[in-house]
Amino acid sequence: MRNRALKTIAGALVILVSSCAYEPTRDPVALYNEIDKEAAPNTLTKKENKAGWQLLFDGINTTGWHGYNMEGIPDCWIIEDGAFTMTTVGGAESQDIITDKPYRSYAFYTEFKLTPGANSGLIFQVAEDPAYKFPYETGPEFQVIDMDGYEGRLEEWQICGANYAMHAPLVKPYKPVGEWNQAMIVVDGNDVTFILNGEVTVRYTKYSPEWNELRNSGKWADYPDYGKYDEGHISLQNHGTKVWYRNIKLKEL
After folding, report:
1. Are 244 and 146 in contact, with CB atoms under 8 Å apart?
2. Where are the beta strands (DSSP E) in 106-242?
3. What is the pLDDT of residues 65-83, one digit of tens each?
4. 3 state SS of 216
5. Taking burial as the number of CB atoms within 10 A of a residue's CB, which of 68, 116, 143, 235 is the most buried?
């Protein structure tokens, strides 16, 4: 009886210690809901600031951003009506901009608005190195695209809110051209979630069997360093069509 009692107490202590050490998975939708969608763009509310959100763009200057593999902001990017936008046209890939700082685990929020047929993306876990020409060679991409006005056929993994060339979106809650869409990427260790206009469009675990199969069997088989980095910069993609980005915020987890 004494031994059994000791085992019971020891087991209880193990459970107690384990529960104290356990950190539950953060709820991406709860993080999305911390953003005040009614507040003025490019500002932080007191509640957001208290929750740990940082403003990465104030709508006035380019502090905290630079062109990929260059100093300063390339001429093809301007600030227009409080939003980052591109001046290049024609659909050709051009200079992307990235955050000055790399990040590991975080929630990243922005709002974007499209022109007819526009194509862009939010690329993250990006390695900045002269060995690469574009951020997408290393980082996954939250697809930003006008699906209805885009010329040409789109695969499911090219639809707005998809993990480009990897995961098709679970739902398609994109808004029409001319309206602001709300996007969030949550990187919580190896768990990644995309949210578009309040709905989860993508969920995946990096390095899982499913992720490895998709990474090695499709487009990225030709890009040996795609998905290689767990910490990296966040990029706004310039694909030669006009897209506006504003209200850019980040919370480190």
Report:
1. no
2. 106-114, 119-126, 141-145, 181-188, 191-196, 199-205, 233-236
3. 999 999 999 999 999 999 9
4. helix
5. 143
Q: Both tokens of residue 107?
A: 């929630």
Q: Which domains does the chain have, with CATH numbers?
A: 27-252 (2.60.120.560)
End-to-end Cα spacing for the chain: 47
What is the per-residue pLDDT across 91-134, written as a single tens digit (0 to 9) for each?
Answer: 888 999 999 999 999 999 999 999 999 999 999 999 999 999 99
Give whole-number Cα distances, 215 to 84, 211, 225, in Å.
31, 6, 11
Tokens 């989860």 belong to which residue? 200
Instruction: Please tell me the chain's helix, strand, coil percentages from 3-state DSSP, rounded to the nearest 5.
Output: 20, 30, 50
State the Rg of the chain over Cα: 20
The Cα 196–Cα 168 span in angstroms is 13
pLDDT-based confidence at 7, cuts 50/70/90?
Answer: very low
How far is 7 from 129, CA to CA, in rounded Å? 56
Alpha helices, DSSP H only, in the chain?
A: 2-21, 28-33, 46-51, 209-217
DSSP state, 233? E
CA–CA separation, 61 vs 49, rounded Å?
20
**Ramachandran angles phi, psi of 235, nearest 5°:** -120, 145
Three-state DSSP state, 222: helix
Write out the two tokens for 30: 């709860």
